[in-house]
Amino acid sequence: MSENYYSGKFGIERETLRVDSQGRLALTPHPFGNDAHITRDFCENQVELVTPVAGSIEETLGYLKVLDDITRKKLAENGESIWLYSNPPHFDSEDDIPIADFTGDHSSKRAYREVLKQKYGKKLMLFSGIHFNFSFAEEFINEMNTEGEDFRTFKDELYLRLYKQLMVHSYLLVLLTTASPYYDASLDKDGRCGIIMSEYSSLRNSKRGYWNKFLPILDHKSLKTFTGSIKKHIVTGSLYSASELYLPIRLKPKGVNSLENLAANGVDHIELRMFDLNPSAPLGIDGRDLEFAHLLILYLTSQPDFDFTPELQEKAVSDHKNAALLSPDAELLERGESVIKEMERYFSSNKKALEIIRFEENKITGNACYKKAAMNCAL
To answer: What is the pTM of this model?
Structure first.
């Protein structure tokens, strides 16, 4: 493997909710102005930290810590703190979920969120998590382009093949990183309270989470057909915009995140959107999980292309939702373990990579809960 093989660009987007001293949703305005790195997503009481582009996972976690420190300090001054769980705390009603008050040049963001409110309700938008962004080093892409194809075309095809592979294997990252089996009853119905043990290990990745009201079937033959198939869903009114495409993997352009920009200028990076907030990790994410995701990306890049048929697209989403159950199907666990074993062989000469892979493998083979699930035992 070349010296560019493990290089690339990395970024993290972390969503959390602001809570007051009683652990209830903070109803104060977003206290960070229009800071591009400390913003909000759907609602005014949700803080989204967006790291600068980094040259390694370690570096991007360093950026995240700086942003996290700034956020916590500012919130503490207001008697508030971060809710480091993917599922929200107790709330009385949707009145406690004010839509993010974007104004001026950003007012279109508020209009979009008003559409989401009408279409999905505001409770769904409280789910928070981690998005992991990655792009290959251009030197690595050039090394892979052994036939000397047009760089833009080769790059787009490379990311599109990776997109398909990651969609098919997104279940594995869900299996390994779910961290939200408990939730407050107010998520079910206004006025209820009390902690509920769900049938899901991750509500936001389950059938109760972020999904469209239909499964958008896409055409993956080329970036042109891919963006065109998304555009058709927008033209017919099934989707308001490409941002409403609630699938666990996204292809992103450089600069403005729009379908037009992606179609015109090509893929800049790929986004993995399935990571739960890990309340046992100070920053909400264990760096080893991101390192494994990077290794999975590299491994899947080496795998052959395939036709991502409508049937396979349906199965990929079904597997993803299945992986979010407290007791996933034994077949899914076995398949995940098989992929990890293949990755061990693929990275057999890299000691650090093997340590990361075995750390993740132990979550399946060494965890009593998963053993019970594999034996079809009720938890």
So the answer is: 0.94
